[in-house]
Request: fold
Amino acid sequence: MHSLFTIGSTYTRKDIYDLLQLPENRRGGDWLNGYHRHGSDYYIFCNVGVPGRTGHDYENYWEGERLVWHGKRQSHFGQEAIQNLFSGDYRALIFYREQDRAPFTYAGVGVPVPHQAVERPARIDWIFGSEGQSDMPVFTDEYSPSASYKEGQRTQVLVNRYERDRSARDACIQHHGARCQACGLDFGEKYGELGEGFIHVHHTTPVSEVGEGYSVDPVKDLVPVCPNCHAMLHRRNPPYSVEELRASMGR
Reply:
């Protein structure tokens, strides 16, 4: 089943009620408390970097594409609702905002990583897209052309922070969609719910060509591509353009 929501798009709670066709007597209430169970889904609403409407700051923040999230102030892992979030029996649809009382941005269905060593409030990290695949290779435009490595030496991969910036990634996908711009693959169409929203985001300008103060344009500088095409783009340095890759496939 495809989601009613588009990754990177913004929604008010009323928008969500309307999309779910909720009757008036089922709106509000627990929907306003941060996380709400609706059938086999949990809807999580969180502020990132700013206090919520009650004045509480739950210290939620993005760590690359990973959302570090905390439950209500007295929440803990003995509570049924918290256990449900990482039980595997429910989907968790994550909505976030970086300004209080602004609409929420839909981040997608999160994969939970519980931190049970933290007692109160409960902490769960939510991961999305390619970060949810632990064996997925990381492709990056950041490299050191002068570096040399001995065979078998451990190397450090520097992840391109422009590609990993969540707000830039969301804006890119909101504009272009989650379809690969090189080969046309849409993981949601191919794999159903399992693949919905899965996509890599490629930086079209090598990071070596931009400075530290560079402000990324999510529409012009970022492009969604599938992992295979992402790997092919990086088969040379500087990377191939998406147009060149398309041409190689006869598209």
Notes: The first strand starts at residue 10 and ends at 11. Residues 123 and 231 are 34 Å apart (CA to CA).
